[in-house]
Write a structure and sequence with these properties.
mainly alpha; 24 helices; 67% helix; disordered C terminus
Length: 619
């Protein structure tokens, strides 16, 4: 029995996956850069493009909603650049799960993967629920009336009736994804192109009815409760609040990173797809919000369906129906984008032994995780059919923001990590390496000796700095909340607290920037490291802190379920654990053979067999 000391437990929980796994992927490499870009756009640019601009302009920002979208886009691009670097570094299925596995360790990787399962399951269920509700309303609510009358669910927290349509649609989409990655992405490409076409139609058609006077409405003409008029009727604080809401409109591009093993050239196509998809999503949001707020005053917008409303007021009923059809395409592409990554996350975790093995079985016919896709589709369908998902949407956000934060942290750690292979080459060539020189604490922390090669000591300094930076971001977010919620009543004491709180953040990033970086060559690297990943971590933690307490309670329950699975199954069936046991057995056999040789025994008969045994065990 192993000795479960604190040191041993820490070693088990932090064991890392090799950065370059030699195992050949069983998934078919069929996805091009265009497929990945369409997947990212479809997943992110769903029905939000038809709703978000009207909601944010009326409640938070007014015509300055375009600035809110710009701030949200910049914040999302920071996270997207981190995903792009990891896509070039680790082109494997699993997204943030696999990234944290090779950087931080097995335990944190499991928690991230478990959260991603929650994110994509709830995301898929909420989209298909929205599709069902939207269709039902277009047809005059026949489905809700019939099922609500004949199959009512009188349980608090569940839906009013079992949504059979949502369940069937989920199973059909799961089957389409399970049949093949290329086939499902073709369907997604069609939905995405149609969705983009409708968005382009809205922008071009709306240009004929725009008026710049709607961006400079005097306060006397603004109804009570809708700000002071002008371009920023709610002030700059309203723009920031609107940016926080708009940020969720960019969530979904991370599904690109889950398809790393199915991309033809992942080290180039994943960074390309992430950056291009985010750029096109911003242009779509920017164009729609500009046209919308110039066609109709911000206080007259319809929060639930702003585009059909604005075309109806202008008497363009054909455009109204085109927008409704576009919303359907947007929902379908968003559904495909939300469901596509879910079985890939489950496949990666089961393939590593942290989830049940049968979930990662690859179909010989379709070259996809067929069983895992259908099982996750079944669970998503049940969620969509019987649960009231309005209270669970925030849980999807917390999982996404946590994944974004972990990816940015992993980029920082890997950028300053020791390159073991390079060290071994230096030793092999007989040249001296840069060793950890004994010196004062501050000289080590700020690298005043001018060390150019990363060592274990400098790598530890970066790890501790990233951890302390993330913890201080939580404190700083509490200070920052006061400025967002009550900017008009800010005192000089609040400003001093903000300035003092900024100093540790800058100090930690400055310490990281002084450390020597790894010499690993990549096809794409995040610029301005550590500043851009640091800002990304701060934004994500700030948005997580703003979520309500019930979201954190539900999130804790989900984490507890995951911990039970990890401790009862994953920790014992981990592939890394089996690899460690195999390596330990080889080392013991080698030690035994060396001891026998040192004992002076005549091992001429067995001296040739031991290496063969070792070679066989190694293979």
């Amino acid at each position: 029995m192993p000795s479960w000391s604190v040191t041993n437990a820490y070693r088990v929980l932090t064991r890392k996956k090799p950065l370059e796994d030699s195992n050949e992927s069983k998934l078919a490499k069929v996805l091009s850069a265009f497929d990945l870009t369409a997947l990212g756009i479809g997943s992110t640019l769903g029905v939000g493009v038809y709703v978000l601009a009207g909601e944010v302009s009326k409640q938070y920002a007014g015509p300055a909603v375009i600035i809110s979208f710009l701030i949200a886009a910049i914040a999302s691009i920071f996270a997207g650049l981190c995903y792009a670097e990891f896509g070039a570094r680790v082109p494997k299925a699993g997204s943030a799960y696999i990234y944290s596995y090779v950087t931080i360790g097995e335990f944190i990787a499991f928690l991230i993967g478990w959260n991603l399962i929650l994110e994509y399951a709830i995301g898929s269920a909420s989209v298909v629920k929205g599709l069902s509700t939207y269709l039902d309303q277009l047809c005059g609510n026949p489905m809700s009336s019939f099922l609500g009358t004949h199959l009512p669910i009188n349980i608090e927290g569940l839906g009013a009736y079992p949504d059979l349509f949502a369940f069937v649609v989920t199973i059909l989409f799961s089957l389409a994804i399970a049949v093949g990655a290329k086939e499902s992405t073709r369907v997604n490409n069609v939905f995405t192109m149609l969705n983009l076409g409708v968005v382009l139609f809205v922008i071009v058609a709306g240009l004929f009815k725009v008026s710049s006077s709607n961006w400079s409405i005097p306060k006397s003409e603004v109804p009570e409760g809708y700000g002071d008029g002008g371009f920023m009727p709610y002030g700059f604080s309203g723009v920031i609040k609107g940016a926080a809401v708009c940020f969720y409109g960019f969530i979904g591009f991370d599904c690109i990173a889950t398809a790393g093993e199915e991309a033809k050239n992942p080290k180039k196509s994943i960074p390309f797809a992430v950056i291009v998809s985010l750029a096109m999503i911003f242009l779509a949001y920017f164009g729609v919000s500009t046209v919308l707020t110039m066609m109709l005053p911000y206080f007259m917008q319809d929060e639930k369906a702003p585009l059909p409303h604005v075309f109806r007021i202008n008497g363009w009923h054909v455009a109204e129906y085109i927008v409704s059809i576009g919303a359907m395409f947007g929902l379908c592409s968003s559904m495909m984008g939300a469901m596509f990554p879910l079985p890939r996350i489950v496949f990666a975790m089961s393939n590593d032994g942290l989830l049940f093995r049968f979930l990662g079985d690859i179909s010989e016919k379709y070259k996809t995780p067929f069983k895992g896709t259908m099982i996750t589709g079944l669970l998503t369908g049940i969620l969509a059919a019987i649960f009231n998902l309005s209270q669970l949407v925030n849980m999807m956000s917390i999982g996404t923001l946590l994944a974004y934060s972990m990816v940015a942290s992993c980029v920082l750690m890997l950028r300053y990590e020791v390159d073991d292979r390079r060290e071994s080459r230096i030793v092999g060539n007989g040249r001296a390496m840069d060793q950890d020189q004994p010196c004062g604490l501050w000289r080590r922390i700020f690298n005043l000796n001018g060390q150019t090669e990363p060592t274990k000591q400098t790598s530890r300094i970066v790890t501790y700095s990233v951890t302390l930076f993330s913890l201080w971001c939580m404190v700083f977010s509490q200070i920052l909340t006061k400025f967002e919620e009550d900017l008009a009543n800010i005192t000089s004491f609040d400003v001093i607290k903000l300035l003092l709180g900024t100093i540790p953040l800058v100090m930690f990033l400055l310490i990281i920037s002084r450390q020597p970086t790894s010499g690993v060559k990549l096809s794409f690297k995040v610029p301005l490291v550590p500043w851009l990943p640091g800002i990304s971590i701060l934004i994500n933690i700030y948005l997580m802190i703003k979520l309500d307490i019930l979201t954190w309670v539900r999130f804790s329950i989900w984490i507890a379920i995951g911990l039970a699975i990890f401790l009862s199954y994953g920790i014992r069936h981990s592939r890394m654990r089996q690899r460690e046991q195999r390596n330990n057995s080889i080392a013991m056999m080698r030690d035994c053979s060396n001891s026998a040789l040192l004992g002076g025994q005549d091992n001429s008969k067995y001296s040739n067999e031991v290496p063969l045994i070792l070679m066989h065990s190694s293979s």
